[in-house]
Design a protein that fits this description.
binds zinc ion, Aldolase_II/adducin_N_sf
């Protein structure tokens, strides 16, 4: 099956819409805030929704193509105030196709505890094995290219980062991987919040098993399988 990587502008537009709807269906919508960006296959910038619409409300006419300089090349209106997140994260690593920024309630609540994410589920193992950076430059809006670049640096090669008192950023070499990383991070954080509310999580895999689990549970084809499931769940 074809991976969720666009080869034409039309595919990039369609994937931006599907990714937005899938994130909404997975519970990541925060009214009109949060967005997903897909790299334009012709290198012109990123496809992203216009401000003012929720993830579930994204349609073709509500998309923009935003250049890496922040100019709107196609579509109407000005870019999202936090568009720099995507422009700088995708500029920093040419292997990435997609980035997601949401205000995941589970991850935001978890981030406030300032504690490490534990491998207490398959989802947790993914981030415990690969590292879950915390962006420390601000808890406010990532509204400038400088803050976007600082976020990209904090992220490094990790699949996700926590933005304490704000939300999350996730990435992927496919659209499906970036969306799955957002959904799995929300799940992993909620799992740990429940466990910590009940006591102190103790029965955990060790470092070696956590690394093995991350590889066997989350190879690219499994992330794509999860992505296709999320797309089928779009109302
Ligand atoms: Zn935000």
């Amino acid at each position: 099956m074809k991976p969720s990587v666009p080869t034409t502008s039309e595919e990039a537009r369609a994937l931006t819409i599907s990714a937005s709807h899938a994130l909404a269906a997975a519970g990541q919508e925060d009214m009109v805030w949060g967005h997903v960006a897909v790299r334009d296959p012709d290198g012109r910038g990123v496809w992203i929704k216009q401000p003012g619409w929720g993830l579930a409300e994204v349609t073709g006419p509500r998309l923009q193509l935003v250049s890496f300089d922040g100019g709107v090349l196609e579509g109407e209106g000005t870019p999202h105030v936090e568009c720099s997140i995507h422009l700088e994260v995708l500029r920093a690593d040419a292997s990435l196709v997609c980035s997601v920024h949401t205000h995941s309630a589970g991850a935001t609540t978890f981030a406030s505890l300032d504690t490490a994410l534990l491998p207490l589920s398959h989802a947790g193992a993914l981030f415990a094995a690969r590292g879950l950076p915390r962006f420390q430059a601000t808890t406010g809006l990532v509204r400038t290219p400088e803050l976007g670049a600082a976020l990209a640096a904090a992220l490094g090669s990790a699949p996700a980062a926590l933005l304490p008192a704000h939300g999350i950023v996730t990435t992927g070499p496919t659209v499906g991987a970036a969306v799955m990383h957002a959904v799995l991070l929300d799940r992993a954080c909620r799992d740990q919040l429940v466990a910590m509310a009940a006591g102190s999580p103790r029965a955990l895999p060790d470092e070696d098993e956590t690394r093995r689990k991350a590889e066997e549970c989350w190879p690219p084809h499994q992330l794509e399988a999860g992505w296709r499931y999320l797309v089928r769940r779009i109302p």
